[in-house]
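Researcher: Structure for this, please.
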Amino acid sequence: MSATTETPKAPRALPPLMSLSDAAAERLRALYAKGEQGKLLRIGVKTKGCSGLAYDLGFVEAAGPGDEVVTDKGVTILVDRKATLYLIGTMMDYEVKPMSAGFVFVNPNEKGRCGCGESFHV
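Model: Predicted structure, token format:
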């Protein structure tokens, strides 16, 4: 009997947990330098809205034990570990429109959004 040895296949690379657009990084730098100095933006997902899930953003003093630390374009954000499966590969952007401005998410895991755009489902 002959023994065969196969080299295991290398695991395929996972996409980054999250990335920031240039506009989002610039806006966060401005927030971190002024009113939110010394804090970090923490991103999570909570149950809300007609589609079931909504992005939850808030500033915290430091990373907690359940936070993933993401640094992109020289800016650090935190991601709630419970939200990572919903957010893998997501790009955070900052949009300025005539009547509003804010962070938006381009999430490849979303399967749909509610009519008002406040919630999503995967």
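Researcher: Any notable elements?
Model: The longest strand covers residues 40-48. The chain has one domain: 18-121.
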